[in-house]
Write a structure and sequence with these properties.
Elements (H helix, E strand, L loop, with lengths): L5 H12 L6 H37 L3 H4 L5 H7 L4 H8 L4 H8 L9 H10 L9 H13 L16
C-alpha cells in the first residue's frame, strides 16, 4: 500500500492553494476533514460493498479457498494498518504508532498474534532503531505477558 503521510498531504495542499488565495488554517482543516471523510466513510463503504460482491461471486463459483484469501481492507482502514503483522501487534496491546514502527523491523508481514509475541520475546530492543516511547510501550506489553527482556547479544537479528 502506498503510504502518504497527513503532513505530506497538508504540505501539498498548502503549496497548491496558497497561490489561489487559500489560508493555511483553512487548508489544514479542510485536508484533515477530507482524509477523515474518505478513510472512515467513503473508502470503507465502497470496499466493503466490493468485498461482499466478490465473496458472493466466489461462493457461487465454489471457491472457498479464494474467499479465505481476501484481505479485510475495511478493517485495515479502520485501524490504520495495512499488514496482518500490524493488526496482530495492535491485538496484543500495542498502539497503532508502535505497531507500525515495530512492523518495519519485523521481516514478515503475515504474523499472527502468537508469532508477534514470540518475536517480542526473542529480540533485544536496545539494538533496534525504535523510539524510546515505543520501547517503553513494548516493555509494558512484555510485562503483561510475564516476559523478561531477552539476553543481549551481538548476533541479534531482526528476522524471526
Amino acid at each position: 500500500m502506498l503510504r502518504v503521510t497527513l503532513s505530506r498531504m497538508i504540505t501539498q495542499n498548502i503549496t497548491y492553494w496558497i497561490p489561489k488565495g487559500g489560508q493555511i488554517p483553512n487548508i489544514i482543516r479542510k485536508t484533515m476533514e477530507d482524509v477523515e471523510q474518505f478513510a472512515r466513510f467513503t473508502f470503507v463503504k465502497f470496499v466493503s460493498c466490493y468485498i461482499d460482491v466478490l465473496i458472493q461471486h466466489l461462493t457461487e463459483l465454489e471457491r472457498p479457498d479464494l474467499v479465505k484469501r481476501i484481505p479485510q481492507l475495511q478493517i485495515y482502514a479502520e485501524f490504520g494498518a495495512s499488514q496482518k503483522t500490524q493488526m496482530s501487534l495492535m491485538d496484543i496491546g500495542l498502539s497503532r504508532v508502535a505497531a507500525i514502527e515495530l512492523s518495519e523491523l519485523i521481516v514478515k508481514t503475515d504474523y499472527d498474534r502468537a508469532n508477534c509475541i514470540a518475536w517480542l520475546q526473542s529480540h533485544d530492543l536496545s539494538g533496534l532503531s525504535l523510539s524510546p516511547i515505543v520501547v517503553r510501550e513494548i516493555e509494558i506489553i512484555r510485562q503483561g505477558f510475564g516476559v523478561d527482556a531477552p539476553a543481549k547479544g551481538p548476533d541479534q537479528t531482526t528476522s524471526p
